[in-house]
Amino acid sequence: NAGVMQNPRHLVRRRGQEARLRCSPMKGHSHVYWYRQLPEEGLKFMVYLQKENIIDESGMPKERFSAEFPKEGPSILRIQQVVRGDSAAYFCASSPRTSLNEQFFGPGTRLTVL
Amino acid sequence: DAKTTQPPSMDCAEGRAANLPCNHSTISGNEYVYWYRQIHSQGPQYIIHGLKNNETNEMASLIITEDRKSSTLILPHATLRDTAVYYCIVRAAGATDSWGKLQFGAGTQVVVTP
User: Fold this and answer.
1) pLDDT tens readout for residues B58-74
2) How near does any CA of chain B get to the CA of A97, in Å?
3) Are A65 and A78 in contact (CB under 8 A)?
């Protein structure tokens, strides 16, 4: 059973471009979570999604950021018009339907904005 | 904001037990104590969780005080590969939107030395 997969692992964008980060949850997991880790800082929750629904987006910046988890395919975190402050590691986690279980984290996508 | 307090760092000798304290004096009756760790640049890894009884698995033991205001994670025989940041997190059970996210604090940087 493959773990949580994220791609790309490293992404470089210039200011003003769009960044699209993908997360494939573990097989059978219908809950997806996105976290961001700024340089030298802790992990911060961004958004929690189930298939086709956003459950909790309390950690998402109000502008430029969006997330989806379609019925088919990976979850996508989209950052429009990136700025240097968006440079960070973005981690995705998944858990099975019957959570309260633990969240399984992917290896992360490291975004660098030039 | 995180509801837990942990020492910022601690050292441990290889082969010895590592005892990581966590204070969660405001924990509610429906909140679990979770422990995760993050090895440098990797995604966080689940270790263990508990409500009020002590728990043990292949990685660690979790000791929760009777009043539930503090807990200790025990790594019985620390190895160099246990060097990581360890996070103690309280997480509510019950309502879907409240137990989705994990709120990471600063954690404890554990360095295991030869």
Assistant:
1) 999 999 999 999 999 99
2) 11
3) yes
